[in-house]
């Protein structure tokens, strides 16, 4: 019973909802392409963090490794967003 109601299942549900929400939002045309793309990149960064923390078990890793990978997600997401923004202007 714990397998179905545990943290991995909840995280998986959040990942699926984030995927569906970003796909629906992009398809609906609710925002400009610039805003939609930036939002989807941010959602992807959050999803990467969830996978790293919960499915790669970084949540139980030593603090220095967790800080390293948290910064990795932030830095590379920022670089991708900056590159996207610079290419659009």
Task: Walk me through this protein's architecture.
- This protein is an all-alpha fold and 89 residues long.
- It has a domain at 33-89.
- The chain is 84% helix and 0% strand.
- Helix 2 packs antiparallel against helix 3 and helix 3 packs antiparallel against helix 4.
* Number of helices in the DSSP assignment: 4
Q: What's the main sheet like? A: none
Structural class: mainly alpha
Number of strands: 0
- The Cα radius of gyration reads 15 Å
Which stretches are poorly predicted, pLDDT < 50 over at least 5 residues? none
Order of helices and strands: HHHH
* Shape estimate: flat
What is the mean pLDDT? 86
Beta-strand residue percentage: under 5%
Helicity range of the residues? Answer: over 70%
**Could you give the distance between the termini?**
52 Å
Question: How would you summarize the topology of this molecule?
Answer:
Layout: H1 2-5, H2 7-28, H3 33-55, H4 63-88
Short description:
The chain has a domain at 33-89. The protein has four helices and no strands. The model has no long low-confidence stretch (mean pLDDT 86).
Give structural attributes:
mainly alpha; flat; 89 residues
């Amino acid at each position: 019973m714990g397998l179905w109601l545990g943290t991995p299942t909840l995280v998986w549900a959040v990942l699926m909802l984030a995927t569906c929400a970003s796909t629906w939002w992009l398809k609906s045309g609710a925002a400009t392409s610039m805003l939609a793309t930036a939002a989807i990149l941010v959602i992807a960064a959050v999803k990467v963090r969830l996978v790293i923390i919960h499915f790669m078990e970084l949540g139980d890793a030593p603090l220095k490794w967790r800080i390293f990978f948290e910064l990795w997600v932030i830095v590379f997401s920022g670089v991708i967003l900056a590159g996207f923004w610079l290419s659009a202007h």
